Amino acid sequence: MTREEVFSYNKHIPTPPEKPFYFGVTGLNHGHIYGMCAGLINAGAKMTHIYEPDKALLDTFLKKYPNITVCDSLEELLAVEELELIATAAIPGDRAGIEIKSMRAGKHVFTDKAPMITLEQLEEVKAVSLATGKRLFVYYSEFVAVESAIFAKQLIDRGVIGKVAHIDIFAPHRLNPDSRPDWFWVREKTGGILIDIGSHQFHQFLEYSGTNNATVTSSRVANYFNKQYPGFDDFGDATLTADNGITGYVRIDWMSPAGIQTWGDGKVVILGEKGYIELRKNCDIGKEKVTNTVFVCTDDGVFTESVSGKVGCPYYSNIIKDSREGTELSMSVEQAYNAIELAIKAQTLAM
Amino acid sequence: MTREEVFSYNKHIPTPPEKPFYFGVTGLNHGHIYGMCAGLINAGAKMTHIYEPDKALLDTFLKKYPNITVCDSLEELLAVEELELIATAAIPGDRAGIEIKSMRAGKHVFTDKAPMITLEQLEEVKAVSLATGKRLFVYYSEFVAVESAIFAKQLIDRGVIGKVAHIDIFAPHRLNPDSRPDWFWVREKTGGILIDIGSHQFHQFLEYSGTNNATVTSSRVANYFNKQYPGFDDFGDATLTADNGITGYVRIDWMSPAGIQTWGDGKVVILGEKGYIELRKNCDIGKEKVTNTVFVCTDDGVFTESVSGKVGCPYYSNIIKDSREGTELSMSVEQAYNAIELAIKAQTLAM
């Protein structure tokens, strides 16, 4: 396999939907909401209404999007007939309630990860989705919004490393404690590190293992350096095994130092029969400002390239299509649910 | 902290012992014996006698060391009075027997890892060592013979990353199946991947965690791509927690592709309160022929350098001193034993 064969691209360029796709927003608590809305807008959707009880969060959002209509209550937002979807990055513990109300009001939902924080919430959301025919789309951003992560899946599907055996996923994050809201430190609000962040990693494991069914074989959480916040985990990890035998390890922490000049040295290593893939998502330590670096190591050599700007992120366009057509182009319903289920089970096992 | 403060060296230069230190060799089954003998000789020891029943292995060794006296039996070797130490890289399952006979003959032992493959062998070796006053030195080479690994310990001791929280150790290896002897594929001879190779990684975990006591919290072995050898593991991993709360993950595999131009992309990541250390021991994929690359990431920046040739490996000189003076400069007796004990427990748990 040559370098050109490894790094061949078919970049996703969004095409706007023929009929306008309107969406509303509620819950600006996590900054991810900006990426979620920008992604949908870039895919051709139109953001028209918002409800946000926190005035400071609302004002900041309105500075960026001044032409959006502000509703006085969630009910008022959900009553806006033309909205097909509600986007939310509310406090994690509150997301299931918003999802359920939105679905019952006839709206699809695009929620930040974690989509919920307990198995009871998960079961209720599943039931309401089934009853209403409305879908839950989850912003597992460390895959759906990261070009190297998406490209790795394409490499696996193209057989570049053969059959996959094992997957390591590392998600260090920078804490910036002074910038965090009160709920950030409270486990009843976040679910804990393996849910709040880890759902990302469990999702990636399912994506790369090519199955939606896996078992958490071990997990841990710890609070090493932030003991003044007893409801906070600054470390978590887990091992898991997929039903096809592929093994995985995920590690999440809040220990990234400022010197790396990004929020975290996120990495993925995927071992296969014919070689391995390594992703250095946000930085390549020791090199200046390079993102989405992909390494492919096979018998033929080591091939490396930054794939930033070369792959595109089809998730947002696919959310629009899936909402309209009932397809599962964005992500299978089962995968979206099973990723958070694994995360909740891992956090529970670790406590 | 500046770059100069991070990368400050105090290179170990061996000084030969005042009184000659003679050692003998038996068991050339693993190629590590060459590194072990060269290390001792470089530290000033004198290799004078050998017993090796396999003529082909012996002949190859004698080409490199033609002036060594060949004994006809292990008993003859062990009867050579001036030998203070026996070096062995016999088949792993046979090592404990050689260690016990050597100690009973009044010799210290320098054995390749794994020093033994069962808990029964471990207990017997411990008892004989205690009864004879003779020491077991283990060639956990991925630490004791790797300058970046040794340097990382110095960085931790100097407080460069503050209190340690978590340690990841990756040891991919290249299989080269055609070059392997029959015993390589038989679990009763090797103990399995977490023992045969993994004892290295458990040793490093103890070294970096600064304690000799840890618990294996989960472990797995698998044979993904070599099912024609049912007694072989081509994958193993484990999580462990030290008695001081430091967590670890070790992953070992036989999946390294030829394209990386070395036997394995061995890496270590050590997370601490003030930053993290990453070691790329044998290669830095995407770069040509660089070894022992150390990255130190703190709030002050990312500092990186290859430390090859700058640190030295004091292990061999310290074996000579410890043999003579009963010190524990090379490695504590407890650490040498506990590393293999963890490895055996992890392999047993995984089966």
Structure write-up:
2 copies of one chain form a homodimer. The first copy, chain A, has 351 residues and is α/β, with parallel strands linked by helices. Chain A has 2 domains: 22-139 and 316-329, NAD(P)-binding Rossmann-like Domain (Rossmann fold, 3-Layer(aba) Sandwich), CATH 3.40.50.720; 143-314 and 346-350, Dihydrodipicolinate Reductase, domain 2 (2-Layer Sandwich), CATH 3.30.360.10. In chain A, 34% of the residues lie in helices and 24% in strands. The first copy, chain A, is built from 13 helices and 14 strands. An 8-stranded mixed beta sheet of chain A has the order 8-9-10-7-11-12-13-14, covered by helices on one side. A 6-stranded parallel beta sheet of chain A has the order 3-2-1-4-5-6, with helices on both faces. In chain A, 54% of the residues are buried. The mean pLDDT of chain A is 97. Chain A binds chain B through residues 163, 165-166, 168, 170, 172, 217-218, 220, 222, 224-225, 235, 237, 239, 241, 245, 247, 249, 251, 253, 255, 257-260, 265, 269, 271-276, 278, 285-286, 295, 297-302, 304, and chain B through 163, 165-166, 168, 170, 172, 217-218, 220, 222, 224-225, 235, 237, 239, 241, 245, 247, 249, 251, 253, 255, 257-260, 265, 269, 271-276, 278, 285-286, 295, 297-302, 304.
